[in-house]
Amino acid sequence: DETAQPRPISPYGESKLAFEKILRWYDEIHGLKFVCLRYFNASGASKKFGEDHRPETHLIPTVLQVALGERPNVEIYGTDYDTPDGTCIRDYIHILDLANAHILALGEAASGCYNLGTGGGSSVREVIESSRKITRRKIETIDKPRRPGDPPRLIASSERIKKELGWQPQFQSLDAIIESAWKWHQKFPRGYSD
Question: What pTM value is reported for the model?
Answer without folding.
Answer: 0.91
